[in-house]
Structure formats: C-alpha cells, structure tokens
Amino acid sequence: MGFFDKLKKGLLGEEAAPAAKAGETLTVCAVAKGNAIPMADIPDPAFSQGFVGFCCGIEPEDGKVFSPVDGTVSQVPDTLHAVGLESGGMELLVHCGVDTVDMKGQGFTMLVKEGQAVKTGDPVIVMDLETIKAAGHPTTIITAVTNSDDFAGVKQTATGPVQAGDAVLEVTKA
Known about the structure:
Strand order of the largest sheet: 9-5-6-7-11-3-2-13
Order of helices and strands: HEEHEEEEEEEEHEEEE
Mean pLDDT: 91
Shape: globular
C-alpha cells in the first residue's frame, strides 16, 4: 500500500487511474523551469535518502509549479506547500521547498483541489520564492514517486537545465 493510499484510506471513494501494464514505462515531467538535481543532492534527508520514495529536485527559476503527469489530484494539505497526484498507478508528491510546512501556507497559492483531473503542464501551485527564501527555507521543488517500491524501476532521466514539461523521471511497471 502506497503513501497516499494510507493517508486517504476510507476518505475518498474514488478509484485511481488504471495502473500501468507490466513492462510499461511511464514518464514524469519537470514541474518547473530550473535546474534538475539528483535525489542525493536534495537538501532534505527525508527526500535525499529516499524515505519518501525515489525522487528528484528542481531548483526553480520562478515560482510557477505545474503538473508532471496526466492524473488526478489526491491530496492538498492545508499548508498549501505540496500536492499529491495519482497517475497510471503512480502516487506522486510534489513538495515545494524544504521544511516549508512550517510556513502554514504563507507564500503559496494552491490552484487545484482534491479530486480534480489535471494534464501534464497544468498549473498546480504558485510559490513566492522571495517569501520562502526570507523565511530561511530552500526553494527546491521535489517530485517523489511515493510508491516507488511498487515498480520494477524508477530512474532520473535529466539533470541540469530543464523546462516545465521536460521528462525527468522514468518509471517502469513490474
């Protein structure tokens, strides 16, 4: 059972999008324009050590955050600093900034709601990078496949400069 399954067990009566077929490869795109960094370089041990699932980070050039997949919004925390998405059997967490839960929503504008269908490239969150930096937090945006263990493999396919919508992760179904 994946991270979001545990969180929403009994809360949502909706079925997730159909799971990918064995051997199928799914693509997760960059959520922002910026510099893609490997999991090990994310400035948060929970993510850099893979405790939340395989992930990558983006050091954003601006505060616009987009959906990395076609899917459904599964989680919108009150703190507005993250969004959960489901797509093809993947459970994704897009986490904006490091330790930004402490900001209690300040500096974030959520553009989606739970249960909403999204397409790759749809805007989901706007981050006020200056407010986040002024509060002493890194602005790294993390995209994690929280149920990575359910797949045969997850690998990062891009580092360095990326545009929102560029492929950054490849997920292979077992």
